[in-house]
Amino acid sequence: MNEASWLSQTRAYLLDLDGTLFRGKEVIPDAPAFIEWLTSTGRQYLYVTNNSSRTQEQVAEHLRHLGIPAEAEHVVTPSMVAANYITEQPNGGRRVFVVGEEGLRTALLAAGCELVDRFESGVDYVVQGIDRGFTYEKLKTASLLIQGGATYIATNADKALPTEEGLLPGAGSIGAAIRTASRTEPVVMGKPEARMIDYALHLLGVTREQAVVVGDNLETDILAGVHADVRSVLVLTGFNRREDIPLAVAQPTLVTETLTELMQIANGQR
Ligand SMILES: [Mg+2]
């Protein structure tokens, strides 16, 4: 199958955000037109982000602020995947100690979880994302709860967040402290795990064959596609360069310079 034939038939786009639609505070110039093309041609899409700190509405608001059409229901966060994971467990436990921010708390509460804020018995889960108010006390509580039998869930394992200040500690760096203290590995929700992609496919009601993961990062976006057995497109507008591809564990199905090039291939114009 040549590249145009599968892509022209792809109905559902699972889109990364940073490096794909915007870079920090700047929109990638062809991103708004790309989203309008998806809508006008009847394609489905979701914004699939590893950001656990923001709510769906906050992510959508940020996109709209950059000129990219977005509603809350277009957004999938790892906090939602964590909440869904908890509700699917057969034991029914929903008492959760959170190491995280508003996006994570909101998603867990929406799923009917009961949030506890100190060490107590009967806590079913420790759910951890990025937490810019992380303290020794939280590390201690999380570690004791996990050692006492609570299941440890991490929203994502990103070690660092690229910012104008440089690389700042991400959820994976906080997770490293909890893993070390509790001697327990978390169940991880976000990219590159398949769970996040599976959840997005479920929300859209499409098959693996009908979808594509689009992103700028070989180790998160493209590897998530490989793990979930969904085709992927690496766009070279963000983190990875063309010379990184041969060295990567996960190979994208297609590589494009821009979203416009991707759209043209899907339209059979290239
Ligand atoms: Mg990215």
From TrEMBL:
Its cofactor is Mg(2+). Gene3D superfamilies: HAD superfamily/HAD-like. Pfam families: Hydrolase_6, Hydrolase_like. Its EC number is 3.1.3.-. InterPro entries: HAD-like_sf, HAD-SF_hydro_IIA, HAD-SF_hydro_IIA_hyp1, HAD_sf. Keywords: Hydrolase, Magnesium, Metal-binding. The keyword Transmembrane helix does not apply. GO terms for molecular function: hydrolase activity. The keyword Electron transport does not apply. It is an enzyme of class 3 (hydrolase). NCBIfam families: HAD-SF-IIA, HAD-SF-IIA-hyp2. Belongs to the HAD-like hydrolase superfamily. NagD family. Catalyzes the dephosphorylation of 2-6 carbon acid sugars in vitro. This is Acid sugar phosphatase. It comes from Tumebacillus lacus.
